[in-house]
Write a structure and sequence with these properties.
The structure holds 2 protein chains of 2 kinds.
Chain A: E1 15-21, H1 22-28, E2 31-32, E3 36-37, E4 44-49, E5 55-59, E6 62-63, E7 70-76, E8 82-88, E9 91-96, E10 99-100, E11 107-113, E12 120-126, E13 129-134, E14 137-138, E15 146-151, E16 158-163, H2 172-177, E17 180-184, E18 187-188, E19 195-201, E20 208-213, E21 219-223, E22 226-227, E23 234-235, E24 239-240, E25 247-253, E26 256-261, E27 264-265, E28 273-279, E29 286-293, E30 296-301, E31 304-305, E32 313-319, E33 326-332, E34 335-340, E35 343-344, E36 351-352, E37 356-357, E38 364-370, E39 373-378, E40 381-382, E41 389-395, E42 401-408, E43 415-422
Antiparallel strand pairs in A: 1-43, 2-4, 3-4, 4-5, 5-6, 7-8, 8-9, 9-10, 11-12, 12-13, 13-14, 15-16, 16-17, 17-18, 19-20, 20-21, 21-22, 23-25, 24-25, 25-26, 26-27, 28-29, 29-30, 30-31, 32-33, 33-34, 34-35, 36-38, 37-38, 38-39, 39-40, 41-42, 42-43
Chain B: E1 3-4, E2 11-12, H1 15-22, H2 26-40, H3 43-51, H4 63-67, H5 76-83, H6 85-89, H7 96-108, H8 115-119, H9 126-140, H10 145-157, H11 165-180, E3 197-200, H12 204-207, H13 210-222, E4 227-228, H14 241-244, H15 247-264, E5 268-271, H16 276-288, E6 298-300, H17 301-310, E7 324-326, H18 330-333, H19 339-349, E8 353-354, H20 380-385, H21 388-399, E9 404-406, H22 410-423, E10 428-430, H23 432-439
Parallel strand pairs in B: 3-4, 3-5, 5-6, 7-8, 7-9, 9-10
Antiparallel strand pairs in B: 1-2
Helix pairs in contact in B: 1-7, 5-9, 7-9, 11-13, 13-23, 15-16, 17-19, 19-23, 21-22
Classes of the chains: A mainly beta, B alpha/beta.
Chain lengths: ~425, ~450
């Protein structure tokens, strides 16, 4: 996921800004879709239908100049530009900040952003040829099939699973010879596989690792097109260690799931399941969502289990910037909470989002929802704010302030507001 | 693909089985079978295999047996005796010809419907035993061509119909536009994070039955539901790999599906009218991944319609007045207990209901389930012949006045349509959603 880059120039003055009166928007437009908010909280936007029956995007109350037959996938870039797929007369492109790209396609989808002010990348198809397009520039080579587009952190590189050999419908034996590979910036790997699935770029985008199947039964990880020497009965998404460049992946071996590194089993422990793993920013630690036994879920950090287990689900695992703490969203007995370093916050909700660490790793904040109302938790305590809609809280770069983005008020006075609080003066 | 009559049974030529078996050697057969017997042939397999006393009480539960003039080789115990017991007794020392025949039995002569489980004094799950044979067939590379091709589609696209990423989204846009002709402000919300409901369908809906997406969108909009559909792979809840024995792919497909719901932060998955997909998300795939139940709660369409009528979010404007009967799909009724909810929805929406006999958990399979219809045209004749008892059951309902048979399952549709055509029955097959859509007040 792309990060927001330099946030220091954002307005971190303490106080509340009323950005938009959404009740007024509702009165102005018969068609108003769910709104999206910029990372800096200064802008709110939504797809609307205008009186002429066309679609546009309303940004802080102002409409994009261009009108479209259809608009979808409105999102903000990390540097606060609204972008959406737009269609006119059956042709599609993307509009960024209200300005459509010059090139049009039969279809565009799968919107990605580079971090900071990096490029905008999409998947596109024209005349049966599939490509990725970065800031309007398509791959030089197209493919008959493409899926699973990924981009590097800075957006400078893109890759997707592509079909490398044709096969007739129903030709199961041709399929099993291996007809898929990865195209990186449009250029295919020189080796094909039966299947390629989840992929990951290394931090600077110069290497790519992917889950592959070399036969119907042999799963392994391919790095820059070269599979590990050892195969497994199954694997999940590989990741690069940001410090040493090694590649790690969950693998299934006799006795259960464990973590492998560069083709060799890395952890001694075996689990009923090991779904996702994450490296700390400095690469010194690795944490994973695991099932130590059937129907019990927990987190293993460097192979060591949290004592706490959950009977339903763990998601949204995240490391603190210093790599010393791990937080996640967890569901137990049907209710969601946040867990940090194996300790649960003593609150239960209908849904919880990815916990956010402060830059100094001392605080954790999270967005949660109960009965259709949204709340912000900080270090296990709910703020005395309640919203009809909210976005993830954002810490200031120095960690001293917290920005809250939420839609508050009654049905008749729905307003989107941006709040900045000093961490020592949170409304708890 | 040709049919070669031969005693004591007809051998059906299938390139997936024939060519796969050509690559086998006795050593490979033995090595693969012994490995998987050791790794996966645990207590459940042993207990079932050792406990069966061949009493034959399962026979009368099986539509293949009943439809084939009580031919013993079609009885559940008979199929186990032919396809599995020699493997166990000889510890894998079986021939390639044996594997071919065992594959055909396990894939095309058992619908994995589990009706026989209810009639076995010991509760032996013959479907599990047939799935174990399929697992071995998969590992030996001997699988009927058509269903293997479907498994390949799952692996390449994460859906069973080779639907590309853009085709999926474009189909949703198309159905949204079509439905706006009827309900001007209708929307199919894509990628709406935090929606209450992720509505999931199976591959054939965007490919062949897009009107079902239209109807679902109308129902969602009329009922005021907060819902979304993903614009990424993971939208398809179906799972033919569950029936080819490719359990690793089952886990991969379900992981993608559930994690799509998690990514969208939806509270639950509401799924369209599919039986095998329900089995996959509710019973099989979730457990392969380590979850006891689905990690994101799953609601089948039958339950969902029922919920909408009970809460008065849907109201009937005019009841459907053509007499209907109900086919209880195995996976949502024997496997999910949704039979009374289905009848509740029918009573809400239809003025004349003819009960089929036997019914509820005792209903006969449509003959298509368990991936049998997905094994394709080479086996169609055998399938419909093996469903004669189902045809008689349908004919009896028709004789009592039924003109429409409601089947809340995609594969049941295919199976029942083939039976109706083959036996010349005067019945039309509909989904429950067809009836709900036709009867509700869309301005309500």
């Amino acid at each position: 996921m792309a990060t927001s880059g330099d946030m220091s120039h954002w307005d971190w003055n303490i106080g509340k800004k009323v950005i938009a009166d959404l009740h007024q928007w509702r009165k102005s437009f018969e068609w108003l879709e769910e709104p999206y908010v910029s990372p800096d909280g200064e802008t709110i936007a939504a797809v609307v239908r205008t009186k002429d029956g066309m679609f546009s995007v309303c940004v802080n109350g102002d409409l994009w100049e261009t009108r479209s037959d259809k608009i979808w996938s409105l999102r903000f870039s990390p540097d606060n530009r609204p972008a959406a797929f737009v269609s006119n007369q059956g042709l599609w492109t993307i509009a960024v900040g209200g300005r459509p790209w010059l090139n049009t396609y039969e279809f565009v989808w799968d919107l990605h952003f580079g971090e900071g002010g990096g490029p905008v990348i999409v998947a596109a198809v024209n005349k049966g040829r599939y490509v990725a397009v970065s800031d309007g520039v398509p791959w030089s080579q197209g493919y008959s099939f493409m899926t699973g587009l990924v981009v590097s952190d800075d957006g400078g590189h893109s890759a997707a699973v592509v079909q490398s050999a044709a096969f007739n419908p129903g030709d199961i034996f041709a399929f099993q010879k291996g007809c898929y590979t990865v195209a990186v910036d449009g250029r295919p790997w020189d080796r094909s596989f039966v299947n390629v699935w989840e992929m990951s770029f290394n931090p600077d985008g110069t290497r790519l690792a992917a889950e592959v199947r070399t036969t119907l039964y042999d799963y392994t990880i391919a790095v820059d097109g070269r599979p590990w020497d050892r195969s497994f009965s199954s694997v999940w998404q590989p990741k690069f260690n940001p410090a040493d460049g090694s590649v790690t992946a969950p693998v299934k071996v006799k006795g259960g799931w464990t973590l492998a590194r560069d083709g060799e089993v890395f952890w001694d422990q075996r689990f009923c399941q090991l779904l996702h793993h994450y490296h700390s920013p400095d690469g010194s630690a690795v944490a994973a969502i695991v099932a130590p036994e059937f129907a019990r879920w927990s987190v293993a950090v460097n192979g060591l289990l949290w004592p706490k287990t959950f009977n339903h689900l763990i998601t949204d695992l995240t490391f603190s910037p210093d790599g010393k703490h791990v937080a996640c969203a967890a569901r137990k007995d049907g209710r969601w909470t946040i867990a940090v370093d194996g300790l649960c916050w003593d609150l239960a909700f209908d849904m919880a989002w990815t916990p956010v660490f402060s830059p100094d790793s001392c605080h954790v904040a999270a967005k949660v929802e109960k009965a259709g109302r949204f709340f912000i938790l900080v270090d296990g305590r709910p703020l005395k704010l309640e919203f009809a809609g909210a976005w993830n809280p954002v810490f200031s770069p120095d960690g001293c302030k917290l920005m809250i983005r939420g839609i508050g008020g009654s049905e008749k006075e729905l307003s989107y507001c941006r709040y900045v609080f000093d961490m020592s003066g949170l409304p708890v | 693909m040709t049919h070669r009559p031969e005693q004591p049974y007809e051998i059906i030529s299938d390139i997936g089985v024939e060519k796969g078996a050509e690559k086998l050697t006795p050593e490979r057969i033995r090595e693969v079978i012994r490995r998987y017997l050791e790794e996966e042939g645990g207590a459940r397999l042993r207990v079932y295999a050792d406990t069966c006393v061949h009493c034959g009480l399962c026979s009368d539960a099986c539509h293949f047996f009943l439809s084939n003039d009580r031919e013993p080789r079609f009885s559940p115990a008979g199929k186990v005796k032919q396809a599995l017991l020699p493997i166990l007794r000889k510890k894998g020392d079986v021939s390639a010809d044996f594997i071919k025949r065992a594959t055909e039995i396990a894939f095309t002569e058992c619908n994995l419907c589990r009706r026989c489980v209810m009639y076995c004094p010991f509760g032996i799950d013959v479907a599990y035993l047939m799935l174990f044979v399929r697992r071995l067939s998969h590992k030996l590379g001997v699988v009927p061509q058509y269903i293997q091709d479907t498994a390949h589609s799952h692996a390449a696209t994460m859906n069973q119909m080779w639907v590309r990423e853009d085709e999926w989204i474009d189909t949703l846009h198309w159905q949204e536009e079509e439905a706006r002709e009827e309900i001007p402000n209708l929307r199919i919300p894509l990628e709406k994070e935090g929606a209450e409901i992720f509505y999931s369908v199976i591959g054939p809906e965007p490919k062949f039955r897009a009107q079902l997406i239209y109807q679902a969108a109308v129902i969602m909009n009329v009922a005021g539901q907060d819902w979304t559909m993903p614009a990424t792979p993971g939208w398809d809840n179906s799972d033919m790999c569950m029936y080819t024995g490719d359990e690793e792919m089952v886990a991969r497909l379900k992981k993608k599906h559930f994690e799509t719901a998690m990514r969208l932060k939806t509270k639950r998955i509401v799924m369209g009218e599919c039986g095998h997909a329900f089995r996959s998300v509710h019973d099989v795939g979730n457990r392969f991944l380590g979850w006891k139940m689905a990690p994101v709660p799953v609601t089948h369409a039958i339950e969902f319609y029922s919920e909408l009528f009970q809460s008065r979010k849907l109201r009937v404007k005019r009841k459907y007045d053509i007499p209907v009967t109900l086919h209880d799909p195995c996976n949502v009724v024997r496997g999910g207990g949704l039979h009374e909810l289905a009848r509740y929805v029918i009573h809400e929406t239809c003025s004349r209901f003819v009960e089929m006999h036997p019914n509820r958990e005792h209903n006969y399979c449509c003959g298509a389930g368990g991936g049998v219809i997905n094994c394709g045209p080479p086996y169609t004749h055998k399938r419909v012949v093996g469903s004669r008892v189902k045809a008689e059951q349908l004919a009896e309902a028709a004789a009592k006045g039924a003109r429409v048979v409601i089947a809340p399952c995609h594969n049941c549709h295919g199976g029942l349509e083939d039976i109706i055509k083959h036996y010349g029955l005067d019945l039309e097959v509909k989904f429950l959603g067809d009836i709900v859509y036709a009867s509700i007040d869309k301005e309500g």
